[in-house]
Write a structure and sequence with these properties.
The protein is of the alpha/beta class and about 375 residues long. The chain is built from 13 helices and 15 strands. A 7-stranded mixed sheet has the order 1-9-8-5-4-2-3, sandwiched between helices. Strands 7-6-13 form a 3-stranded antiparallel sheet, with no helix packed on it. Strands 12-14-15 form a 3-stranded antiparallel sheet. It is globular. It starts with 10 loop residues before the first helix and ends with a helix. Bound molecules: pyridoxal-5'-phosphate (PLP). Pyridoxal-5'-phosphate binds next to helix 3 and helix 4. The site of pyridoxal-5'-phosphate has 14 residues, from helix 3 and helix 4.
């Protein structure tokens, strides 16, 4: 089976993990701060706090943004459930904003919804923006709407590492408060499991650090009261209710080694995507489009089919092509339906989902494997 996505590991990645196992601390050593500095530098953000998954990162990003019980948080219905769950962890209410042709939150819908929420006095505390498939949201336009209202912007950049918007890397936080990355094996780079939160705001960085590390600090300058004179270097304080969301040094070593190859991974993904554009041009499909001021990280190559999607999907799977579907709209999940969401609430998202098909795309996919995918797809579509 040719999978839809897959990590790409080499001997250097393996050696860097073995080196940590043989010679270094397994956790709280040097690898985590080195990985954090390298990520911040790559994305051109000021600060980076690594965590054990993007889901953890989204949770503490919401908390750092002040999201709490009774607040509203908005996100895209076309995403993985973690984009919404993070708000629920904080006791907040979730609502969604429908997508546009780019499959990202629609700026037009957002403007209308904000105007209504302002009148009804129920503006969201934060909005979680998803750069779907690695293609950036229109950050400048969105920030122009939300900044005057004091709404926090959190980027769920799990698909976006290596992509660009207006000539800057996704994750630079030029228009947002924080951006969250994932290093799950199908994402741009992997640390097996892992994630990171980027920010340019040093107050947010301090809160994120505390929240990810038990709420505990050892920094003498950060103590809430002066430590009594007889207390020594062992002294630490728990200041908030934090979590153990630390990334280990073993995972950070793998992530750091992978980061060195990120540009090559993205270049190969982009090459495969443009080859798909050519190879699929004559088939009855809608192909993904990326605006000229953006470079997608090409996490996914999604097409929209005409015909019986379920049949197309299962025939391709039978032929060894690991197609997939991203995503079942979050508001239609049983967990979210209990809050009153139903079919028809977000027609663009639901219409997209009805015909969406994800084709295999990852750096190690060979040209001949790609041709195999296209040939099988052409055959199956011909039978429709
Ligand atoms: C993968 C993914 C996540 C969760 O990432 P983890 O690191 O597995 O927790 C969150 N949001 C989106 C959009 C994702 O694709």
């Amino acid at each position: 089976m040719i999978p839809y996505g897959k990590h790409s590991l080499d001997g250097q990645d393996i050696a860097s993990v073995v080196d940590v196992l043989e010679n270094h601390y397994l956790t709280q050593g040097e690898m985590v701060p080195r990985f954090e500095r390298a990520l911040a530098e790559y994305c051109t953000a000021k600060h980076c706090v690594t965590v054990n998954s993007a889901t953890s990162g989204l949770h503490i990003a919401c908390l750092a943004a002040g999201v709490g019980a009774g607040d509203w948080v908005w996100t895209s219905p076309i995403s993985f459930v973690a984009s919404a769950n993070c708000a629920r962890y904080c006791g907040a209410n979730v609502d969604f904003v429908d997508v546009d042709e780019s499959h990202n939150i629609s700026v037009t819908h957002l403007a209308a919804r904000l105007a209504r929420a302002k009148v009804e006095n129920c503006l969201p505390k934060a909005i979680i923006l998803v750069h779907f498939a690695g293609n950036s949201c229109d950050m400048q336009q969105i920030a122009a709407l939300t900044q005057p209202l004091g709404i926090r912007l959190i980027e769920d950049a799990a698909h976006g590492l290596g992509g660009e918007y207006q000539g800057r890397k996704i994750g630079c936080c030029q228009y947002s408060d924080m951006a969250v990355l994932s290093f799950h094996p199908v994402k741009s780079i992997t640390s097996a499991e892992g994630g990171a939160v980027l920010t340019n705001d040093s107050e947010l960085q301090k809160r994120l650090l505390l929240l990810a590390r038990h709420g505990v600090t050892r920094d003498p300058d950060a103590m809430t009261n002066r430590a009594p004179v007889d207390q020594g270097a062992w002294y630490y304080q728990q200041q908030v209710l934090g979590f153990n969301y630390r990334l280990s040094d073993v995972h950070a070593a793998l992530g750091l080694s992978q980061l060195g190859k990120l540009d090559a991974f993205i270049a190969r993904r982009a090459q495969l995507a443009s080859q798909y554009d050519v190879l699929l041009a004559d088939l009855p499909l809608k192909l993904p489009k990326v605006a000229t001021d953006r470079k997608s990280a090409w996490h996914l190559y999604m097409v929209q089919v005409t015909g019986n999607r379920q049949q197309i999907f299962s025939r391709l799977r039978q032929a060894g092509i690991g197609v997939n579907v991203h995503y079942i709209p979050i508001h239609l999940q049983p967990y979210y339906r209990q809050f009153g969401f139903k079919e028809g609430d977000f027609p663009q998202a639901e219409g997209f989902y009805a015909n969406a098909l994800t084709l295999p795309l990852y750096p190690d996919l060979s040209d001949s494997q790609q041709q195999q995918v296209v040939a099988q797809l052409a055959k199956v579509l011909g039978e429709q």
